[in-house]
Design brief:
The complex is a heterodimer. By secondary structure, chain A is mainly beta. In chain A, about 0% of the residues lie in helices and about 55% in strands. Chain A contains no helices and eight strands. A four-stranded antiparallel sheet of chain A has the order 1-8-6-3, with no helix packed on it. In chain B, α2 links the parallel β2 and β3. The chains are: A mainly beta, B alpha+beta.
Chain lengths: ~70, ~450
């Protein structure tokens, strides 16, 4: 089943660690957000491959925005 | 005294500095980013200048834009608040070179204390105790491992250009140190533009206690008591109190004298804070770092001494004597500060958002330094501090009672806040006993942080 990974809070996308198509394992960091001077790693909660990647470095995301889809 | 002051900061601290300036009849100029145009500090100022976009590099860290705003408004002095450009010696120098009054210590003193390795060496020469550690930057990971063998695990891995707990970590053994070293270097480079790393002995059962100092215009350095800042999450303070429940009269006298020597060692002028670690088991204190600016938690010192520290900063910068007799200050009662952050109260993750409702507690012994009101928005661009809730009482129990009442009547709707955490803290047995250390919050959350 596909896992939609969403932003937990409004934030700036500081680093995108994975590419579309990459294989990832449960717990791997996908992107690192930055909000209020804090880095917040966004991790995969299932294993699979990165089917969709919706953000680029420097983007602003809002709470609930889809960051990636893991399949 | 100068007649106008530009406040190169935002949020609660800008509002707080503006308040004192206006009380003294000084015209206050605010500078702000796009994102902050509606905040109370902009409205409170006599004049406001838009610096640029929300990103700090485009606004609050843009030295040229801040100086241009001063020139355009005819401001005669600049107060940097804390954070942003406050401890940037290049900014202090640029302000002075522009013919303006810099409300802070000399750029040389900022630079000397800004490099934490240098600061350690400097105060040690003035007989201020420092923790066992490396006296020079650790050039590579193998040198770090060798140094850690000398110091003994666990060690703290710290950034020479750092401060405020950012980029700091604890390594319990060699593999942890190897991992921590690279992370620390990357972060230090990114956050402070200086990749130098040093190691210090980790003190497992420690309190974080700091001393407020003032370097007066005549060259004297005086101490105005201590603050206990041991309630921390992610090595960052969330609550402070004065006096420290862990400091005896004898220890206090030694710490205050050492802090004065640290200030004298750099010819310190203006307000500064000497941060120390208190090894509870050994009853010893060690110098950590000196913050060469007004401290976030300065209000609790003001509450027990009756001294307006911002007023003293402005007077010192103008070459005037303090407005009080430094030899006659006797702290009275007890004060606590709770840093109300826009973050969830369990995991302490940021929670920006629009503020729908905002009602501050009022009452005897209650002081709120706030950066927001209802109808404003907390954006992801800056730190999560919404307000500092401070209470004073004739003794610690009374101050804590007032804090409990104030926390329960502080209403913020919109972003999540850590107010529920403070309700928990104020009922926590360990905190209430006064016998707590920097591991308190981690223990309250039942795990490593």
């Amino acid at each position: 089943m596909a896992e939609e990974v969403r932003a937990e809070m409004a934030a700036n996308v500081w680093k995108v660690v994975v590419n579309q198509g990459d294989a990832v394992a449960d717990g791997d960091t996908l992107v690192i957000l930055e909000s209020m001077k804090m880095e917040i790693p966004v991790v995969a909660e299932s294993s699979g491959s990165v089917r969709e990647l919706h953000v680029a470095e420097g983007d602003l995301v809002q709470e609930g925005d889809i960051i990636a889809v893991i399949d | 005294m100068f007649e106008s002051l530009l406040v190169a900061n935002r949020g609660e601290i800008a509002a707080r500095v503006i308040r004192t300036a206006q009380r003294l009849g000084i015209k206050a100029v605010a500078v702000h980013s796009d994102a902050d145009a509606d905040l109370p500090f902009v409205r409170a100022a006599d004049e406001a200048v838009l610096l640029g976009a929300a990103a700090p590099a485009e606004s609050y860290l843009a030295v040229d834009k801040v100086l241009e705003a001063a020139r355009r408004t005819g401001a005669q002095a600049v107060h940097p608040g804390y954070g942003f450009l406050a401890e940037n010696p290049g900014f202090a120098r640029a302000v002075i070179d522009a013919g303006l009054v810099w409300v802070g210590p000399a750029p040389e003193a900022i630079a000397a204390m800004g490099d934490k390795i240098n600061a350690r060496a400097l105060v040690a020469r003035a007989s201020v105790p420092v923790a066992a550690g490396t006296d020079a930057p650790v050039p590579d990971v193998d040198a770090a491992v060798a140094a850690a063998k000398e110091i003994g695990y666990p060690v703290m891995v710290k950034a020479a250009g750092g401060g405020g707990g950012i980029g700091m970590s604890v390594a319990g053994d060699e593999p942890e140190l190897r991992a921590a070293y690279d992370t620390a270097r990357t972060r230090a480079e990114r956050f402070f533009g200086n990749p130098d790393i040093f190691l210090e002995r980790f003190v497992p059962h420690a309190r974080h206690v700091e001393v407020q100092i003032l370097g007066l215009a005549d060259g004297r350095v005086v101490a105005l008591g201590e603050r206990d800042c041991s309630v921390q999450r992610r090595h960052q303070k969330v609550a402070e109190e004065t006096p420290s429940p862990g400091v005896s009269a004898d220890l206090r006298a030694r710490m205050l004298a050492a802090a004065v020597r640290a200030g004298e060692a750099v010819g310190y002028r203006n307000a500064g804070t000497v941060e120390c670690l208190l090894d509870v088991d050994r009853g010893e204190f060690m110098f950590l770092e000196m913050n060469t600016r007004l401290q976030v938690e300065h209000p609790i010192t003001e509450l027990v001494t009756g001294v307006d520290l911002v007023e003293q900063q402005l007077r010192i910068a103008a070459g005037l004597p303090p407005s009080f007799d430094p030899d006659a200050v006797v702290p009275r009662g007890h004060a606590v500060e709770l840093r109300v952050y826009a973050e969830d109260p369990k995991r302490f993750l940021p929670s920006p958002g629009a503020i729908v409702a905002w009602q501050e507690p009022i009452g005897e012994g209650v002081r709120v330094d706030a950066g927001y009101v209802a109808g404003t928005a907390v954006t992801p661009f800056y730190d999560p501090l919404l307000a500092k809730l401070c209470t004073w009482g004739p003794d610690r129990d009374a101050a804590l009672d007032r804090a409990r009442a104030a926390v329960s009547s502080f209403r913020v709707e919109g972003p999540k806040t850590n107010l529920p955490f403070f309700a928990e803290l104020l009922d926590n047995e360990e905190f209430v006993s006064g016998d707590y250390d920097t591991g308190l919050v981690e223990r309250m959350r039942g795990g490593r942080r």
